[in-house]
Design goal:
By secondary structure, the chain is mostly helical. It folds into 3 domains: 6-105, Orthogonal Bundle (Fumarase C, Chain B, domain 1); 110-207 and 224-358, Fumarase/aspartase (Central domain) (Fumarase C, Chain A, domain 2, Up-down Bundle); 360-448, Fumarase/aspartase (C-terminal domain) (Ribonucleotide Reductase Protein R1, domain 1), CATH 1.10.40.30. It is built from 19 helices and 6 strands. It is found in: Cytoplasm. Pathway: Amino-acid biosynthesis; L-arginine biosynthesis; L-arginine from L-ornithine and carbamoyl phosphate: step 3/3. Residues 364-432 form the Argininosuccinate lyase C-terminal domain.
Length: 457
């Protein structure tokens, strides 16, 4: 297929140059957005009288026919074309002749591609947000089921204080809700129409840029033509937001991997979302969680690619910017792939409540509650802390827990202890008494669940 810029050149393009220069392999996915942008542009050209209205109508009809033919499989995209813009315009010209050649009036591929990628990523954000909302719903349902399931909470990967599994899941839900908000912010700044910026300096034609923006659902237009064609902040912002999504999925995956191990055995993954070993018949591996954890680095790399690509580019458009699409599309596709597997994995996993409860009974995670019991008796917290620390050391020496330590041993350390201490350090009571907003008592977990469900409606 002939290049759109062939007139200046006397020699055919070397195959090596064409292969290196071509972007059809990755920008062909934007065919629908490219056609929709061209339909809006052609409609505006006819409405403003830049081209005859009858020709504008023919172009719009021709573009719609091409779109339908591609979607139905009747028309295959020519992977030898330089890019998707060249292919669509070439096909239109083949069908309409001279009329098709009028489509590119008052437009450059620079503002055209800036438009196409905004339209494409806008659609991708909607899809990713939808998948994140599905994960939020799964987390809320699982958290409601386990709002009172006791488990140890950790700091430094050491058992720290008693919480519930529902509360733990809602921590990840809070992260995902922030991800959804961030993607909404990215979309807001992305939803500005650059078409009309031309190659870099606008055009002498009397374009109605606001008409095109309205037709394509944009909130506004760009107001500097140089920036209009060379801005890729929205790609970087999206890659950054997606990187944070992957941080959250990777952290969650790390915990799933630990919880599946025999050392924890807090959860059992469904067979449909696990794999085995080629040599060890007993193995059941959390490969989905491990792959999600690994693929986070891939998305971080895409962000680094975009930052590095843009950092040294003088205004306005440079060919370096063709690299934006491979990086951001890879980040988008990776996140979608991870969510497609991760959400049903969480939805179908079995929670081993007794193992969680047994783990919570060890490690003195009710020690803070023991100290708070003494504070309730009038002892200053720092003194109560010291007394409880001595009791923990005593339990370790004797191979006991705070629950099994005899009352007389308590009273040797501090005379304020009485039999009510055993009620105070009961794990269920420890959790249920944490009623401050944001704490893990079941009522608060349900409040978090309601808030999350309301936010994604």
């Amino acid at each position: 297929m002939a290049q759109l810029w062939k007139g200046r050149f006397k020699k055919e393009l070397a195959k090596e140059t064409n292969d290196f220069n071509s972007s059809i392999g990755f920008d062909s996915r934007m065919f629908e957005q490219d056609i929709k942008g061209s339909i809006a542009h052609a409609t505006m050209l006819g409405a403003t009288g830049i081209i005859d209205k009858s020709e504008s109508d023919k172009i719009v009809d021709g573009l719609n026919d091409i779109l339908n033919d591609i979607k139905r499989g009747k028309l295959k995209i020519d992977m030898q074309a330089e890019d998707i813009h060249t292919f669509i315009e070439g096909e239109l010209t083949a069908r309409l002749g001279q009329t098709g050649k009028r489509l590119h009036t008052a437009r450059s591929r620079n503002d055209q591609v800036a438009l196409d990628i905004r339209l494409t990523l806008r659609d991708e954000i909607e899809e990713i947000v939808g998948k994140l909302k599905e994960l939020v719903l799964v987390l809320c349902n699982k958290a409601e089921e386990h709002k009172a399931t006791i488990m140890p909470g950790y700091t430094h990967l050491q058992r720290a204080q008693p919480i519930t599994f529902g509360h733990h899941l809602m921590a990840y839900c809070a992260m995902i809700l922030r991800d959804i908000d961030r993607l909404g912010d990215v979309k807001k700044r992305m939803n500005i129409c650059p078409l009309g910026s031309g190659a870099l300096a606008g055009t002498t034609y009397p374009l109605d840029r606001n008409m095109v923006a309205d037709l394509l659902g944009f909130d506004d237009i760009t107001y500097n033509s140089l920036d209009g064609v060379s801005d890729r902040d929205f790609c970087i912002e999206l890659a950054s937001a997606l990187s944070i999504v992957m941080v959250h999925l990777s952290r969650f995956s790390e915990e799933i991997i630990m919880w599946c191990s025999w050392e924890f055995k807090f959860v059992e993954l469904d067979d449909a979302f696990s794999t085995g070993s080629s040599i060890m018949p007993q193995k059941k591996n959390p490969d989905i969680a491990e792959l999600v954890r690994g693929k986070s680095g891939r998305v971080f790399g895409d962000l680094t690619t975009l930052l590095t690509m843009m950092k040294g580019i003088a205004l306005a458009y440079n060919k370096d910017m063709q690299e934006d699409k491979e990086a951001i599309f890879d980040a988008v596709d990776t996140v979608k792939m991870c969510l497609n597997a991760f959400t049903p994995m969480i939805d179908t996993m079995t929670v081993l409540k007794e193992n969680m409860r047994n783990a919570a009974a060890k490690g003195f995670i009710n020690a803070t509650d023991c100290a708070d019991y003494l504070v309730g008796k009038g002892l200053p917290f720092r003194d109560a802390y010291k007394c409880t620390g001595e009791l923990v050391a005593l339990c370790i020496d004797k191979g006991l827990t705070l629950e099994s330590l005899p009352l007389e041993e308590y009273q040797k350390v501090c005379s304020l202890f009485d039999s009510e201490v055993y009620t105070a350090i009961n794990l269920e009571k420890c959790v249920n008494d944490r009623k401050v907003v944001g704490s893990p008592c079941p009522e608060n977990v349900m409040m978090q669940i309601k808030t999350a469900r309301d936010k994604i409606q």
